[in-house]
Specification:
two-stranded antiparallel sheet; Rossmann fold; hydrolase; AB_hydrolase_fold; alpha/beta; single chain; Alpha/beta hydrolase; AB_hydrolase; 9-stranded mixed beta sheet
Length: about 290
């Protein structure tokens, strides 16, 4: 265990291996003036997979089917970036600063070589890490995300506010609108996903503050207005996945990403939106593990 970490008592283990995200202990490690909250599970052999999460998300917003599925074969680490959930500090207003914090956290754990899975905003952070610290990254999985300057990304703030109001008016979680289609399949998948997020009942994370949420929105807006990056410098294998009807980060961005990186491959899920990897979690986990173990 890294020096400076603290561990709570609740965990589901097989030998010394935590097997369930629902019961993975929340630990902390301090580096660069920030105390990062994180969880880890799965076998300790092989290259770890670090998960980078989405707008407004804390540790409890990862789909346990995706985390547990990947952790069946790989060492998985999830964490709260600076100023989010149980991590200390103030939330940066640029994706680049968030990437720097993520690298600080990864290196604090003593990890010298990782795979990255970035969902939505996390996928933006992962792209920056691959460019600034290429020797740290072996493979990238970029889901529900887009490149700097990508189509419609500057509209995430407007859509988020709109669907938050829709959620309040209909007494539903805004993610039902932001992440899933309004078809019967999409509505059903959204309800199932939101139910899975409530499976952890002990030691839940703190919700994101409004201040941090606002800072993240500013960072995504700036990302959407940036000049396109030269993605040809990302030489790692890249798996890009999304729903075919993502209205939050329009699906064309996923197509663009996979085309612009030298070693990209694309998976699109039918009748699915921004949360396509959660709607099709079984297929996604199978594809992701095959990609990581190739």
């Amino acid at each position: 265990m890294p020096k400076g970490t603290t561990v709570n008592d609740s965990q589901e283990v097989r030998g010394d291996v935590v097997t369930s995200y629902k019961n993975a202990p929340t630990r902390t490690i301090t580096a660069g003036g920030v105390t990062f909250a994180y969880r880890e599970l799965g076998p300790r052999s092989g290259v770890p997979v670090v998960f980078l999460t989405h707008l407004a998300a804390v540790l409890d917003n990862w789909d346990p089917r995706v985390v547990d599925g990947i952790a069946a074969k790989r060492h998985v680490v999830t964490f709260d970036n600076r100023g989010v959930g149980a991590s200390s500090g103030s939330t940066p207003r640029t994706i680049e600063a968030m990437a720097k914090d993520a690298v600080t956290f990864i290196r604090a754990l003593g990890l010298e070589y990782v795979d990255l899975h970035g969902f939505s905003m996390g996928g933006m952070i992962a792209q920056v890490i691959a460019q600034t610290d290429p020797d740290l990254v072996r493979k990238l999985i970029l889901t529900g995300t887009g490149p700097a300057g990508g189509e419609g990304i500057k509209d995430v703030t407007r859509l988020s506010h709109l669907d938050t109001v829709r959620g309040l008016l209909t007494l539903q979680d805004p993610k039902q609108f932001l992440f899933f289609t309004r078809t019967a399949n999409g509505r059903r998948a959204g309800k199932a996903f939101l139910a899975r997020l409530k499976e952890r009942t002990q030691g839940r994370d703190k919700a994101i503050s409004l201040t941090s949420y606002g800072a993240q929105l500013k960072a995504i807006h700036r990302w959407g207005l940036e000049r396109p990056h030269d993605l040809s410098v990302i030489h790692q294998p890249v798996l890009v996945a999304n729903g075919e009807s993502d209205r939050m980060v329009p699906t064309q961005n996923s197509v663009d990403l996979a085309r612009r990186v030298p070693n990209g491959e694309l998976v699109l899920y039918p009748d699915a939106g921004h949360g396509g990897i959660f709607q099709f979690h079984g297929q996604f986990v199978e594809t992701a593990l095959e990609f990581l173990e190739r």
